[in-house]
Design a protein that fits this description.
22 strands, single chain, alpha/beta, 6-stranded parallel beta sheet, 16% helix, 4 helices, 8-stranded mixed beta sheet
Amino acid sequence: KYIKNKLTPQFEKLGAGSLVLGVKYLHVNGEGISVGDFSTFISAPDSHIHLTTWNADRHEGKIEIGDFCLFSPGVRISAATKIKIGNSCMFANSAYVSDSDWHGLYDRALPVGKSKQVTLEDNVWIGDGAIVSKGVTIGKNSIVGARSVVIKDVPENVIVAGNPAQIVKELDLDEKIISRADMFSSPKELDDLYLEIDRISLKQNSLIRWIKSKFYPSPDQ
């Protein structure tokens, strides 16, 4: 009910089958933010997810997210121009994607500064704490290693790591790559995933904690 009444109206589009864990810690700010079908958002009280566009001073920021994408706690996506995310992309904890500097290099009071579209093609995986900077395109199936900083284009089917990120491995094209889209095409695998998510989310539950939540709810409930 919260998703339907409070969260969905904040999006230009929120696709069917979206799963939001920690719904009150998913923040949608600005216009032009659209999400495809069967996306998963996992946020936490100490690690919120932020999807933000800048829609002022001649800027009309947009965030376009495809189907089957995964967003982990602490992810931030910030656009003053456009960030386009393909299908089955995955973002590990605290990954950050931005299409702008957010201040001028010389005029520090200037909002946004330089801005250029960022494109993530299908099945891209952004690692823990990695940063993707303005103007970058990351090719299909490629992986950005943890804590890496991407400042230039990344081709398809490679792993990049470091600051600035460099190619450290090429994926074996003879190996089958199974994407989140493939997982969602299998009802059994999807049921298994949701059962595992429920197990993790509810592992601290007990009858006493449930009774306490009814009579003494936390401020976040």
